[in-house]
Amino acid sequence: MTDEIRIEGFGTIDDIGTDSDITTDVTVDTVDDTQPSLAQLDVYADIVYCLDLTYSMKPIINKVKETALTLHEDLQKVMSQNYQREIKQLRIKVVGFRDIYCDGDYALETSRFFYLPDEAAEFKAFVDGLEAKGGGDIPENSLEALALAMQSDWCTTIDESVRKRHIIVMFTDASAHPLEKAASYTGTNYPENMPKSYSELVDWWCGQGSLSSTGNAVTMDQVAKRFALYAPEGSEPWTNLADDFDSSLTNFIEPNKGGADITTTGLIKMLSETMA
């Protein structure tokens, strides 16, 4: 198959899932002439993996485990070679999800941010503890995981020589339960402060949402934010979400293969594009 990556408003990048070298440099911001040149900018990047932990996703869960210890080194190599950038700070977090309506208390497994490379061992220990299991029916609670990721304690900096990136990566081979389903759910394991609808989730991404319990704004940095999607084409709501989320990259994967078609090189490419 031919994979397509789309950056809203910036065209396409083909064959991102292959092991070939990166040959395309995509600029996703307009830089003022008075600011430092792109090559001079260091990068502060936060990455949140929204990771489907159901049984079928074992291949990509194993891929995350395999790349945990070398992720910083692998990303820095690509950033240096292709963008002449240095990663000043890299943090990574996992929001693991299954089916809240079927899987009880283990439906969501969330980590803190780990600093890489200093806390690579701790990050690997967390992901090594993740198990592919459960899921119930085909739709999973991936949109709730996405909403939790949006509420992360993202890095901040006022240094103009530093480029911030707040990156959410969704890995799933299934459709998502609609957020509206929670209104009729009587269980006690549903997370607090969730958007009530798909349109409200899009508002959150656009910096227009607020938490129901406190009224505090959900403020995704409109310059720093990036969304990278690995999901089957045609599964709801992923095709629409790829269009409705700006600053997004999409890599449609084969259905029912659990991300087995995602290569290590392809993953590093996708992440480096979001950081550039």
Provide an overview of this structure.
- With 276 residues, this protein is of the alpha/beta class.
- The protein has a single domain (4-14, 40-275), classed as von Willebrand factor, type A domain (Rossmann fold, 3-Layer(aba) Sandwich).
- The chain contains eight helices and eleven strands.
- The two termini are 26 Å apart.
Q: Number of helical runs?
A: 8
Number of self-contained structural domains: 1
Total number of β-strand segments? 11
- Integer average pLDDT: 86
Using only CA atoms, what is the Rg?
18 Å
Calculate the terminal CA-CA distance, rounded to whole Å.
Answer: 26 Å
Summarize the entry for a quick read.
This protein has 276 residues and is of the alpha/beta class. Helices cover 26% and strands 22% of the residues. The strands form three sheets. Strands 3, 4, 5, 6, 7, 10 and 11 form a seven-stranded mixed beta sheet that branches. Strands 1-2 form a two-stranded antiparallel sheet.
Question: What brief labels describe this structure?
Answer:
11 strands; disordered N terminus; alpha/beta; 8 helices; two-stranded antiparallel sheet; single chain; 7-stranded mixed beta sheet; Rossmann fold; 276 residues; 22% strand
SSE diagram, text form:
Layout (H helix, E strand, L loop, with lengths): L3 E3 L5 E3 L27 E11 L5 H10 L3 H13 L3 E11 L2 H4 L4 E3 L3 E3 L3 H9 L13 H9 L11 E10 L26 H8 L3 E2 L6 E2 L6 E8 L5 H7 L3 E6 L10 H12 L1
Parallel strand pairs: 3-4, 3-7, 7-10, 10-11
Antiparallel strand pairs: 1-2, 4-5, 4-6, 8-9
